[in-house]
């Protein structure tokens, strides 16, 4: 096998969260995606362990009053319902570690062209409130942390999760250093949308062809008008037709083509990219992980000489499970 060098950022903490039985959040998918990569030849030297951020770092992005409430578990019940997780120390540790992971991915990508974070995409967290399984916005936090080190960078957040990146949009509403682009289901959560720098709302039932065309148009626009120094890519797989929350009809091959389109664009334009795996909601975890694995496959196709994963069955939509 050709030597591979794509950095993978992962912590076992990502799947360590006690949730009520039948909770819809697929907490095991992080570990399973890690295991999937290991079983297909990911090398020990690729794995980078994130460090949990401090609350002081988080305060660059979220308000001090919100952070105090998070730490002390002093929300109203309705606020926790909006977030969708029960409070626990585990949850706080996991959120800080995941934000550390996206931050690390963005920092590593600046030097190594690509990095993939096996978590992240908590884009519904706003400055003062959380929602939709998102306590703190790792995407926004990572951008702020990178900008502390490199204040002149122009960052583009390309969010292709089926849900709009509303928290990220509002956090960077008045910040010209970060361009926010969200391609999402117009009828999917959040039902009250925020204003990104570029929003591409798509209708229920969107299929591969029209989706990939919309993505290509957005990338062309970003290349022309934004000229980012680095891209933070949310590769949520809840656009997949089998997703239990998403409204699109994107095939497994469509997921792969989306990731190929984004990563090829970044490589051709010499724009470093840090990808996070984002959302994806299926009770069938094997199928869910196979969806997320398309990002890893695409990364190998674009960034190495290796075809890497020799599982050719994955290339064919007929073999969807
Ligand atoms: Zn989502």
UniProtKB/TrEMBL annotation:
<keyword id="KW-0378">Hydrolase</keyword>
<protein>
    <submittedName>
        <fullName>Histone deacetylase</fullName>
    </submittedName>
</protein>
<dbReference type="InterPro" id="IPR023801">
    <property type="entry name" value="His_deacetylse_dom"/>
</dbReference>
<dbReference type="InterPro" id="IPR037138">
    <property type="entry name" value="His_deacetylse_dom_sf"/>
</dbReference>
<dbReference type="Pfam" id="PF00850">
    <property type="entry name" value="Hist_deacetyl"/>
</dbReference>
<comment type="similarity">
    <text>Belongs to the histone deacetylase family.</text>
</comment>
<dbReference type="InterPro" id="IPR023696">
    <property type="entry name" value="Ureohydrolase_dom_sf"/>
</dbReference>
<dbReference type="InterPro" id="IPR044150">
    <property type="entry name" value="HDAC_classIV"/>
</dbReference>
<dbReference type="InterPro" id="IPR000286">
    <property type="entry name" value="HDACs"/>
</dbReference>
<feature type="domain" description="Histone deacetylase">
    <location>
        <begin position="30"/>
        <end position="291"/>
    </location>
</feature>
């Amino acid at each position: 096998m050709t030597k591979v060098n794509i950095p993978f950022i992962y912590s076992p903490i990502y799947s360590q969260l006690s949730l009520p039985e039948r909770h819809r959040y697929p907490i095991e998918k992080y570990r399973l995606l890690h295991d999937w990569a290991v079983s297909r030849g990911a090398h020990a030297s690729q794995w980078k362990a994130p460090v949990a951020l401090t609350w002081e770092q988080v305060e660059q992005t979220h308000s001090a009053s919100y952070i105090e409430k998070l730490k002390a578990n002093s929300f109203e019940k309705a606020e926790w319902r909006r977030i969708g997780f029960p409070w626990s120390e585990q949850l706080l540790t996991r959120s800080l570690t995941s934000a550390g992971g996206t931050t690390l991915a963005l920092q590593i990508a600046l030097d190594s062209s690509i990095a993939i974070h096996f978590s992240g995409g908590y884009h519904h967290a706003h400055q003062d409130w959380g929602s939709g399984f998102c306590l703190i916005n790792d995407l926004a936090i990572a951008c702020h942390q990178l900008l502390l080190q490199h204040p002149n960078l122009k960052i583009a957040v390309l969010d292709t999760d089926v849900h709009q990146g509303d928290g990220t949009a509002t956090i960077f509403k008045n910040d010209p250093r970060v361009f926010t682009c969200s391609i999402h289901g117009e009828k999917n959560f959040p039902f009250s949308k925020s204003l990104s720098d570029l929003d591409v709302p798509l209708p229920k039932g969107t299929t591969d062809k029209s989706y990939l065309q919309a993505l290509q148009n957005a990338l062309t626009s970003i290349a022309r008008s934004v000229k980012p120094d680095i891209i933070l890519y949310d590769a949520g797989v809840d656009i997949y037709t089998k997703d239990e929350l998403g409204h699109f009809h994107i095939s497994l091959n469509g997921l792969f083509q989306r990731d190929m389109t984004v990563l090829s664009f970044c490589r051709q334009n010499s724009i470093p990219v840090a990808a996070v795996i984002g959302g994806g909601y299926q009770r069938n975890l094997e199928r869910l992980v196979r969806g997320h694995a398309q990002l890893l496959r695409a990364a190998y196709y674009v960034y190495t000489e290796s075809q890497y994963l020799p599982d050719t069955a994955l290339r064919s939509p007929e073999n969807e499970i």
